[in-house]
Amino acid sequence: MEFIRKNISYLVVLFGLGALLYSFNIHNNLFWDDVDWILNNPSVHAFNWANIKYIFTHDALAGVGLASNYYRPFLFLTFLGNYVISDSSPVLYHVVSNLIHIGNGILIFYLLSRWLSNKRIAFLVALIFIIHPLQTEAVSYISGRGDSLSIFFILIGIISFLWFRTRSNYLGAYIISGLAMVLGILSRETAILFPAYLGVGLIAFEFKDNFITRFKKSLFQVSPFIAISAIYWVLRITVLNFQNTLNFYQQGNLYSEHLPYRIYTFLHALLVYLKLAIAPWGLHMERDVPVSTSLFDGLSWLGGLLIILALGWLVYSYRRSDKRRFNIWFFGLGIFFLNLGPTSGILPINARMYEHWLYFSLFGLFVIVVWYLEALIGYLEKNHIKLKPVIFILITGYCVFLSFQTIKRNIIWGDTEAFYLNILKYESNNVRVLNNLANWYSSKGDTEGAINMYQKAIAQDPTQAAPYYNLANMAKDNGDLAQAEMLYKEAIKVNPKFHYAYQNLASLYVTQRRYKEALVVVEELQKIRPSSQLLEVIAQLKRILNTP
Predict the structure, then answer these.
(1) At a CB cut-off of 8 Å and minimum separation 6, what does 118 contact?
(2) Do the Cβ atoms of 335 and 194 come closer than 8 Å?
(3) 253-278, pLDDT tens digit by residue?
(4) Is 366 in contact with 128 (CB distance < 8 Å)?
(5) Sequence-separated (6 or more) residues with CB below 8 Å from residue 479
(6) pTM: predicted TM-score of the whole model, two decimal places
(7) CB neighbours of 330 closer than 8 A, spacing ≥ 6?
């Protein structure tokens, strides 16, 4: 309470500005993954024991009959709470996500106020964290709530540990922080890094010995949390391994099968991340970074050089006994790269870059940037150089720019057609976006626009089943059953596990009284997605055909 009383003006600005900027998303509809994760997912539509048990024992897409590598039960509990209170009305969903994000900014302000004893740095870092437009992908997109929610619990865990540790109550520290860590992991898997985040903070700001001693002390204090991470890791690759461990690529490719290529590609992506962090324009989802097969492909070498220079500067600061500068760089780089670590390509998860992967990395980066800004202001004041107003105007202008971009992104998240067209402006060959835009046109009755987009998607990648399937549905609705049959078969040909096509093809055969062909299709579907309901359908079809 004393912290709130002493910093009420800072907190009002952080909360007020965050609430203002994100008020522009309040009425944005749920879409994209929100459809499967929330709108069509019966496990989040009623608060009862059966649904809670289902959420904690199944992956993210099980509720809609699909398989996923994501296991985020606490995140889905928040969806359940939203749905029970407001059904599919989007307002409460956005209010919750917005408040979590603003809360993270306030927690960052609290942490930095403790660690740096400089309210100006703490405030500006927290402010940029809240208003930066890169954050909209994790905030305005309801399915992206896992990023902000997991970081919320990480920050609560760190703050709780420090509070209890100050009072020498280590039992309380480990119980409360351990619970926060578990809730973070159950919100998004990357919270498994909690002990690393805490360890970086302890090394940089809590201990005053030489680095090796600080490292040993920190390692000892975070060891119980490392044990929690180890237990979760074992569970994740065994009983919680719902599909193709840890969201790796299901089929090998140039990127997934060569670790050096993944590292080179990350070095290229690193430059894009840094550009977006400092100058965030041209923002869009579904970014693609070309696979680098050599350190000298594109600018991969420059990303590697920047890492070497940053580490060299860190070592130089340590050897010069500049503890303040070393601590800032160690903490900033630690947070930045720890957050990006799981998506760096060391483990080949099935994407190479997303803007929301920078959600917490921005914190680490701007700790360094703002610390140098404060040092510059201090230098000007000390030497009576009257440029402080100029610096203030530049910072204010930059924050206005970030705020404008955030409002712009929040608005575009609410316009489905504009959102998809914005992505296609930069990623014209993205099959998923072409297919989604076609689905949206179809839902609005724009048959010509939908067919055009589906055909573009097929032309870009003929191996994707969804566009064939969706075109087949349109043909079926228009009465062209022969065309629908051909397209369902094509969807099955390119993806023999695409169960939707089997279902609709079997249904098509039944309506045409082609029961023998329907039986063959349902039996194939039973092989790839066994269920008691399908067995009943098979039995019924056999009775119709009078076969034993």
Answers:
(1) 112, 374
(2) no
(3) 788 888 999 999 999 999 999 999 99
(4) yes
(5) none
(6) 0.93
(7) 200, 203, 204, 314
